[in-house]
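=== Discrete structure encoding ===
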Amino acid sequence: MTKKYKFLFIKCITAAFFLNGCSSSIKHVSENKDPFENMNRNVFQFNKYVDQKILSPISKTYVKRVPAKIRSGVSNHLQWMDTPNTIINSALQSDMENTILASVKFLLNGLTLGFYDLDKGETVIKKRDFGSTLARLNVSEGPFLMVPFIGPKTTRDLTGTILDRQNMANLSSNSIDDLNLAEIPINMIDKRSKMSKTIDNIYLSTDPYIKVRSFYLQNRRNEIYSKKYIENKNNNMDAEFEKLLD
């Protein structure tokens, strides 16, 4: 076992024991904080410009020119490449069922590099990342951020994203790292094509920035905290989110 694997293994085991001692019933959710709204709005306008001038046209061409089966295979491959993060963070969160299911599916679909789902969607896996692991530790989600090229994040989720990528870099070889880097724009195009109608509708709203913030926070909290949090969510943010879905 190499040093980097030993280091990652020790981190995972230590964190797993620590998480086991934490109460899973307590969910620490910060209030809706946006102290950097002016800066966030400027970054949002920049991201919107890049999206409308570059990403959106490319994604529309992608959908128009690339057959649906090939696009589905690309999506499957990108999800497969991200599965190790789910495996690691499921273990850190003591969700052994999800850890085992994700591991088995990752190994099975490794036969096709993830382009074809040999499981045919029968195994349902809950996506986990280090942002959700930090939430399990009752770390506050922190202020809302609009990150250039990446989009909406909370400080907790941005930290989790950085740590997830570091873990993947520790686990993978240089060739896999190069592949991950090359697939970043492909992933952006794939996600943009799937969310085309939602994003275009947001741009048509009176205040697109508020809509994006509401959409991201509510979906992210629902993903992490499930129905228990949604029942107690902030009324104002709830109203904004419901308007978005109209």
